[in-house]
Amino acid sequence: MLTNIFGEVLNIERVSIYDNFFEVGGHSLKAINVINKIEGETGIRLPLKVIFESPTVAQLGKVLNDQESSLNGQNIPTAESKSYYLASSPQKRLYVLNEMVQGQTAYNMPSMLEINGVVDVARVEDVFQSLVERHEALRTHFETIDGEPVQIIDEQANITVDYEATDIDDYETLLNDFVRPFNLRQSPLLRVKIVKLAEQRHILLFDIHHIISDGFSINLIIKEFIALYHERTLDKLKVQYKDYSEWMHNRDLSGQRTFWLSQFEDEAPVLDLPYDHSRPKQQSFTGKTVSAEMPKETRDALHELAQKLIVQII
């Protein structure tokens, strides 16, 4: 079972029981995928750190066998139907940041998929409409009620796939022109566009707000899009995001809350990094990516240190 799960997540045909997950293409997001698949097969919810501590099939299998009785998964119950639900903690943070600096695209998560061959734009739109209907998060908008950010799941949210034919062959320009701010009070917080570059060459542009997505969920949506486009059947979803959010709100976290309130009784310290310029009073979200070449000896030493500390280099 574990060998098949590793192979499926890593997209490789043959996996040795002694292959280190992180040395054959794995990373933290894929590790979460492994955790989810193990839970689906066994009903056991392993902590994420277990894969870092036991990164081979042989080691992970021993963990499952030795701790099967103690590592019982916590089933997330289906939340009762309500007109709105409290936003989760990550959603609250993103909502507040969005309200502070409106008109920004800092929390947009754009992606791009190159498609070789003829594209049926109407079919693409139908598939994304099916995904919006399948995932409640894709038809969720946000408002403030009694001073608290809440998520409201719309019964219906229509998505339109834009289409353009162009001779611009600069992917970065195409993506920058596509990305624009979202209105969190209107679903779906998702945009899709097909750009035709040639008769047999297209680009699918995809943008979603971070308040309803992360790296793992984007990969899942793209994977499901490909499956539905090719008329494959998807398994029915057992849990929606609002179920998880309600479950988290109903957990007894009083001990953790007391601890952290005592840690920051005065105020949370400001991370004072050695900048080469003055820190602005309000975050501007302006910046850029700077690339530099690292000597092989330094890179190898970093990887060796990461393995010793059981951490991942991002």
From TrEMBL:
This is Carrier domain-containing protein. GO terms for cellular component: cytosol. The lineage of its organism: Bacteria, Bacillati, Bacillota, Bacilli, Bacillales. One of its GO terms (molecular function) is phosphopantetheine binding. Keywords: Antibiotic biosynthesis, Phosphopantetheine, Phosphoprotein. Residues 1-68 form the Carrier domain. SUPFAM superfamilies: ACP-like, CoA-dependent acyltransferases. It comes from the Bacteria. Its cofactor is pantetheine 4'-phosphate. GO terms for biological process: amino acid activation for nonribosomal peptide biosynthetic process; antibiotic biosynthetic process; lipid biosynthetic process; secondary metabolite biosynthetic process. InterPro entries: ACP-like_sf, CAT-like_dom_sf, Condensation_dom, PP-bd_ACP, Ppantetheine_attach_site.
